[in-house]
Design brief:
The chain contains ten helices and nine strands. The chain is α/β, with parallel strands linked by helices and 286 residues long. Helix 1 packs parallel to helix 2, helix 4 crosses helix 5 and helix 5 crosses helix 6.
């Protein structure tokens, strides 16, 4: 007799996505709906300096059958370089919220400096327009770009970065960041895992090892900016350091370009490994 049963389809996750709680284009519920439409088992909502989108995401996830991993993305510095750190599997959101209040204030002050510089260059965008674009989310450069586009001072969203507010452009302002060791400690106090986000070529074995000594738990090896040769290299380096792999699309809601929701095909087993590590850390913390 022929066996007509079929193996279940492989499950995939996306452990870095963003919503309007920071600089994403879609509200958290719409992000979760997009994840359900893409057939994802789970997503991590990792808004910049904000966990305010998580309640809405959790409600939508329960309704749509998509697991939501509580997360955040923090800007830090390490050995003179900017380093983005993801906090995944956050269990104590109040602890994270308390620390993020100051960072959100810094984001507003940075936006004010950018707007002042743009005004000096003849672009009369206002802070009111920027805050209107941000809504209740943490203010970021994409909100400035959208305000510039709405005012007609650029022809397309990307032009705002390429001509005015991107790195090296006239109105670029660096973020205020804090030391990576402090950020890792903050993530651990919130019950989460600390993940080096989109490290690229900076992720040498020695650098990963030094970060592991400071408590790093995982490295985002799958990311749209990582070419296949780099992905394999990072998988090897991460394993050698005794750390876990992670991966995500870094999706901000756009329908074009390489950062598409679920485009990285992150295997569910990576999430399973992270679950085990998070449980071990929780047990050790008592």
């Amino acid at each position: 007799m022929t066996d007509t049963t079929t193996a279940p389809a492989p499950a995939f996750v996306d452990l870095q996505v963003h919503s309007t709680a920071s600089d994403g284009a879609l509200p958290p519920a719409a992000v979760v709906q997009a994840a359900a439409d893409a057939g994802l088992y789970a997503i991590a909502l990792t808004d910049h300096d904000s966990v305010e989108g998580l309640p809405e995401a959790n409600e939508a996830g329960a309704r749509l059958g998509v697991r939501i991993v509580p997360g955040v993305e923090l800007s830090t510095h390490f050995e003179g370089e900017e380093l983005h750190l993801l906090g995944l599997h956050l269990a104590k959101l109040d602890a994270m919220r308390a620390a993020l209040g100051e960072f959100q204030g810094q984001r507003v002050r940075r936006a004010e400096r950018i707007v002042t510089t743009l005004n000096a260059h003849g672009i009369p965008v206002t802070m009111e327009a920027v805050l209107a674009e941000a809504g209740t989310g943490a203010v970021g450069r994409p909100h400035i770009a959208r305000a510039m586009l709405a005012g007609g001072w650029v022809r397309e969203f990307r032009e705002a970065f390429d001509k005015w507010i991107g790195w090296g452009r006239p109105a670029y302002m660096a973020k205020e960041t804090f030391d990576v060791a402090d950020a890792i400690a903050l993530v651990h106090r919130a019950g989460g895992l600390a993940v080096w986000a989109h490290p690229g070529e900076l992720a040498t074995p020695s650098r990963i090892a030094r970060l592991a000594e400071q408590g790093l738990d995982a490295v985002e090896v799958l990311h749209p900016s990582h070419q296949p040769y780099l992905v394999q290299r990072l998988v090897d380096y991460t394993a050698q350091a005794g750390l876990l792999p992670s991966g995500g699309s870094d999706w901000h809601g756009t329908q074009e370009g390489p950062r598409k929701l679920g485009g990285q095909l992150v295997p569910k087993i990576w999430l399973d490994w992270q679950d085990v590590k998070a449980a071990q850390l929780a047990a050790a913390a008592g």
